[in-house]
Protein: Tigger transposable element-derived protein 6-like
Organism: Aphis craccivora
Amino acid sequence: MTSNPTNHSSLSILLSNANGLKQHSNELFYLIHNKNIDIALITETHLSKSSNMNFNGYTTIRADHPDGTSHEGSAIIIRSSLFYNQMQNTNKPYLQAANIKIKINHLNVTISSAYFPLGQQITEPKLQSFLQSLDIDNAISILTKSIQNAVSNSSSHNSNNILPKYHTALPPFLVNLIKAKRQARSLWQRTKYPRHKNIHNHPITDLKT
């Protein structure tokens, strides 16, 4: 870690789910050298407290599972010659994230290798807290727009009004709003009553706020 403000004009970044970093370390080492990778963002590292994992010419920043056993976890593997600031890691059962700040094209950029384990529900306040810890001013706004786009796309492609399985990870209040919107739309399409149109528009307004 260093506080040197040296600027980097461009970086080559790799994102990979290792499904066990120790078991696939040789493959990863070959890949980052062969492809001249500057920063590798690795999830499912499966490293324990006693695990040692180093790559020649690179620094490894780990965010292991908080129980210290070899499952889940994430890491950033960064070229040792690069200048960056290491941020506080997140080590929670529902989220493990290794975080750094680095200057690219004279802009301070936050890079996070974050892993959200399957079966662990992350609530909206927890997610907001994580994004705020990264000091990203517009992160929550971007997240909200992404959710709204996902809702819009699913509405236009799902004629049976069935909520796609990948939306089940959304916060419950969003799931309920999406269902209410679709039910109201179906009612208005059948009747065309102005009152039913107003009911249909109400959940849409809630989703946009």
In short: The helical segments are 25-34, 124-133, 139-157, 172-191, 194-208.
